[in-house]
Design brief:
Chain lengths: 237, 237
């Protein structure tokens, strides 16, 4: 039997080149949406409802849920939580459901719903994601959330790191996956320094979130595996 | 005065993310369309008419021009020249005009006509292209022809090599350019071995064109600079 395939898609805007049906999509927004989601589950959040629009998020907040809304790196006024993983390290989110909308990450989830399964990946839970993919034995796509539809470096580096972990179990027919792997291999000893050159980190640097950047590049801090089911993410690990 | 910008676009299918007006587009199809064009000019071809469709190419042949048509790596029946640079190293093309259509390269030119200028790049003439961009002091986009709209490794490696040559003179705001540069820097000592892993080279390997691959990765073999004017490419160097 031939191995399943792994593909990398550099941005939701390039998803039209990929067939989603029958596949697992790993959604990645390293700085910082998927890193936040993983951190939230590690701190006992019951479920996360990712929504594309701020208005939807506000409506969910009005029903009594906690809500987090970020645009262009900033927390929007009137919401409970921001887009820093550190804001999810607190007791009072345990057992709660959080509605979340972000500039890139939640858009990527919204655009992947034709897939068989959607899982949330970050460096913080990379080994849990890798094990899940290997055990699933299904074709998969690592979907980089990018920045407003554009390619970005940090999500691609994660894609390369994930490809490195699973490549013995998957076919890699596509140059995007090969390039992500090459990029990661040439950068992994100095990820923090290299991502500092990226457009998004330069953008975020103005927001003084250096601690977030460093944290989001930590491997295997948590063993959670957020999976999207019936409109919400739950931790299946 | 701030420096002009250099962007990298991984495929003509992603051009919708770029503004072409006011910019120079460097079209790149390393294996093998743009490498062939550069080789043809180095051997005295007067002009090249790149066309997107096979039928257009056949019509131009009927008017007495030489014609080259390639699809999926193979020369189409009834045409004079194929898509190997070696087929352009001959005396009887001197002074001639050649109509050309290829799977990727000529499509990329056809999609770039909104730009201020289109130039043809390959490793074979990389320093001529770099000098032209530096002297022009205009914003530019390196457009990788890719493979049927998909990202490919070899065109991206060329983009990185070109960025390396010009980067002191351009701003690089975009992670695609940064990543192409990183990929090239980590690969340049073993380009041939690395491109052998690429999907396109694996595809071409079946056609037994190893000699072409090696040739197309040679730096600065020729000092020609093909520029697109009034529907045709001419050498302005």
């Amino acid at each position: 039997m031939s191995s399943p395939h792994i593909e990398v898609c550099f941005s939701p805007d390039f998803l039209f080149q990929h067939q989603l049906k029958g596949k697992i999509v790993v959604v990645v927004d390293i700085f910082r949406a998927t890193s936040c989601m993983v951190t939230a589950f590690a701190h006992g959040v019951e479920s996360i409802i990712p929504v594309a629009e701020v208005e939807q998020c506000k409506s969910l907040q009005a029903t009594g849920l906690l809500a987090a809304a970020e645009r262009d790196g900033l927390k929007l006024e009137g919401f409970d939580l921001d887009n820093s993983p550190f804001s999810y390290m607190q007791q009072n989110i345990r057992g709660k459901t959080i509605a979340v909308t972000t500039t890139n990450g939640t858009q990527a989830i919204a655009q992947s719903t034709a897939a068989d399964e959607i899982v949330v990946g970050s460096f913080l839970n990379i080994s849990s994601v890798a094990s899940y993919l290997i055990e699933s034995k299904k074709d998969c796509i690592v979907l980089c959330a990018g920045w407003k539809g554009h390619y970005n470096l940090e999500d691609t580096l994660f894609a390369g790191a994930l490809v490195e972990k699973v490549k013995g179990h998957f076919e890699m027919e596509q140059d995007a996956a090969l390039s992500a792997l090459m990029l990661y291999k040439s950068s992994k000893s100095e990820l923090l320094a290299i991502t500092k050159e990226s457009a998004h980190v330069k953008r975020l640097a103005k927001l003084n979130i250096h601690k977030d950047i460093e944290f989001c590049l930590t491997n295997d801090k948590y063993q959670v595996l957020p999976v999207y089911t019936n409109g919400r993410l739950v931790n299946v690990n």
